[in-house]
Amino acid sequence: MSLIYIRQAAKNDLEQIMPIIDEAKKFLKEEGNPQWQSDYPNVETITADIEEGVAWVLIVDQKIAGYTAITDGPDPNYKKVDGKWNNDLDPYVAIHRVAISDEYRGMHIYDDSVNVLTNFSVFPAQIEKLADFAAVSPAQPKNTIVPNVDLNMYSRGLGTRHLLGGMDSSSRFVKVAFTLAHAPKSDDETESVTNFFNILHSVEQAKRLDEIEPGKFEYTMYSDCMNLDKGILYFTTYDNNQIDAVDMNN
């Protein structure tokens, strides 16, 4: 899974930023868009952005994938507009000079409403799949198929009977979304860490259940989480489900 984040740009990023700007100019020209078809933006423009502290870069796996300038208003570009602002008093920010590398164009950022990550299928498809399991519940189901018949609810957990349990991405996404949504919430660190690993272990892959090529299997080698404030790493391994902790400050 790719590591994606943004950070402020520095002068030593220029050699990676400018080719992205040039790719964006070429892309706009091919699309018949007259924007950026002069010398703007050029290295002086981007250098000024960096010096003013408004330059930001998108990082994908430690590589610069995009650029933008974010300015905290008032922005002189918008003092004169064709028309009238509905509100010209509240503070605002303006986003200028957005460019994405050809290598990464087409990537998307989604609002992760279920707090579950995926690398395949694409996120919207995973979310849409959840609708197939909208009736899944920790509670016993109501008899709506033949309401006039007193059915024998022969087992606990029948509300989760149709919950997927495969090793495929979609099955694991559905199950971990369900588990997370119904897991206990706590401000206590020990309880929160315990709950976290119970959620992850609900979809871990055991050996010899997910064949990726003849005779070769994928499995969950370890699971981990970290308290970023304290610098404490918690982890379990395939051979040891006891939660261990490492203080990264020592």
Explain briefly what this protein structure is:
The chain is an alpha+beta fold and 250 residues long. The protein folds into two domains: 97 residues, Aminopeptidase; 125 residues, Penicillin V Acylase, Chain A (4-Layer Sandwich).
Can you tell me about this structure?
- Strand 5 (211-213) and strand 6 form a beta hairpin.
- This protein starts with a strand and ends with a strand.
- 24% of the residues lie in helices and 22% in strands.
- The mean pLDDT is 92.
- It has helices spanning 14-30, 43-52, 123-129, 169-182, 189-201, and strands at 4-8, 55-60, 63-72, 93-100, 211-213, 216-217, 222-227, 232-237, 240-247.
- The protein contains five helices and nine strands; from the N terminus they run E-H-H-E-E-E-H-H-H-E-E-E-E-E.
List keywords for this structure.
Aminopeptidase, 250 residues, 2 domains, alpha+beta, 4-stranded antiparallel sheet, Penicillin V Acylase, Chain A
What is the CATH topology classification name of the largest domain?
Answer: Penicillin V Acylase, Chain A
Tell me how many strands there are.
9
How confident overall, as mean pLDDT? Answer: 92
Helix tally equals: 5
Q: Which percent range fits the helix content? A: 10-25%
How would a crystallographer describe the biggest sheet? 4 strands, antiparallel
- Structural class call reads alpha+beta
Residue ranges: pLDDT <50 for 5 or more in a row?
none
Q: Estimate nothing, just give the exact number of structural domains.
A: 2
As laid out across the biggest beta sheet, the strand order is 1-2-3-4
Shape descriptor: elongated
